[in-house]
Amino acid sequence: MNIKCAIFDLDGVIVDTAKYHYLAWKKLAEELNIPFTEKENELFKGVSRMRCMEILMELGNIQLSQEEQVKLATKKNEWYVDYISVMTDDELLPGAKEFLIACKDVGIKTALGSASKNAPRILKALAIEDLFDAVIDGNKVSKAKPDPEVFIKGAEECGIPAENCVVFEDAYAGIEAAHAGNMLGIGVGTKENLPIADVIIAGLHELTVEGMKEILNDK
Ligand code: B16
Ligand code: MG
After folding, report:
1. Counting Cβ atoms within 10 Å, is residue 217 exposed (0-12), middle (13-18) or buried (19+)?
2. Which residue of 49, 126, 149 sits with most ligand 1 atoms within 8 Å of its CB, as the best mutation to test the pocket?
3. The domain 5-15+92-217 belongs to what CATH superfamily?
């Protein structure tokens, strides 16, 4: 496979925003008297805000009107935005910025493919918005991962065919989305959590662009 475009998920690949999502959902869960720990929070990773709200209702075995769900999810988001408003580039995951710069240096296009509607704000806080040729986020897609829409749009905006794109993802549904879009999926995490990934790395600090090209040449 000849790589021409690398598409990156945000939370869990470039930055660890999961801890802030966790704190905000936990605060809401407490208001609703729903037990909520880091274990339940795993279900929320890579999933859209309103789907998270539905999962929270399932966990608490409660039903709320659509209007009430939107109101509570908005409240959660306000707390989340407060948490991330003080975020700095110290919170970039190891090797992420260096890897993006190295891709640019060798002419590999870069795209963001995230479910988060807060992605532009986060990229700005981390001062990495200039390192992406395309930013596709929760504001630009109508179908959530495992649907490939977010990655297909990223490839299109970069002008690269899917067969020359690789996706970096920490969520199982994200690797499924890459495959559904005819792209290879590099799992950021463990083989146990991401058994369907084409390659597994613990983080971008483990990989050089040359190393990635070599691995992908055989795929
Ligand atoms: P927001 P990713 C995802 O980001 C998070 O993993 C997930 O926990 C969150 O619910 C989702 O974004 C939506 O975020 O409420 O900010 O729109 O992994 O797709 O970059
Ligand atoms: Mg993620």
Report:
1. exposed
2. 49
3. HAD superfamily/HAD-like (3.40.50.1000)
pLDDT confidence of residue 218? 85
Question: Looking at residue 179, what is its pLDDT?
Answer: 98
**pLDDT score of 107:** 97
Give, using CA atoms, the residue closest to atom 16 of ligand 1: 116
The ligand that comes nearest to the alpha carbon of residue 168 is 2
Residues 6+ apart with CB under 8 A from 40: 29, 59
Q: Which residues line ligand 1 (CB under 6 A)?
A: 9-12, 21, 44-49, 52, 77, 114-118, 138
pLDDT score for 106 = 97
Judge whether 165 and 103 are in contact, CB under 8 Å: no
Report which bound ligand comes closest to the CA of 116.
1
What are the tens digits of pLDDT across the range 64-92? 999 999 999 999 999 999 999 999 999 99
Q: Which residues of the chain are modeled with pLDDT < 70?
A: none
Give the pLDDT of residue 53: 98
Domain ranges of the chain: 5-15+92-217, 18-84
Same fold for the pair 5-15+92-217 and 18-84: no
What pLDDT sits at residue 219? 84
Name the amino acid, one letter, at 127: A
CATH topology for 18-84 is DNA polymerase; domain 1 (1.10.150)
- Amino acid type, 19: K
Contact (Cβ atoms closer than 8 angstroms) between residue 181 and residue 21:
no
